[in-house]
Amino acid sequence: xxxxxxxxxxxxxxxxxxxxxxxxxxxxxxxxxxxxxxxxxxxxxxxxxxxxxxxxxxxxxxxxxxxxxxxxxxxxxxxxxxxxxxxxxxxxxx
Length: 94
Known about the structure:
- The structure is a single chain.
- By secondary structure, this protein is mainly alpha-helical.
- Helix content is 38%, strand content 4%.
- Strands 1-2 form a two-stranded antiparallel sheet.
- Strand 1 (82-83) and strand 2 form a beta hairpin.
- The longest helix has 22 residues, at 21-42.
- It is flat and about 60 Å long.
């Protein structure tokens, strides 16, 4: 699959971007190389690859440990307003 400078100019127009011919040519070359890589990846043989589904296995769990001390009071010293230990913010939606 390839892309043409005319397609780049059309996309630039739709995006309301100004693109000169040199830039359009450069973008065309770059996108063409990306699309060539995508074509190469699509031709890879993947039928023999087993796609595992991690949702069917049990997740390893770890103990729930406190790793940091509670710094709420220290962090709230710079807050303009606090209610019941929570940051108070202005109401945005009625």
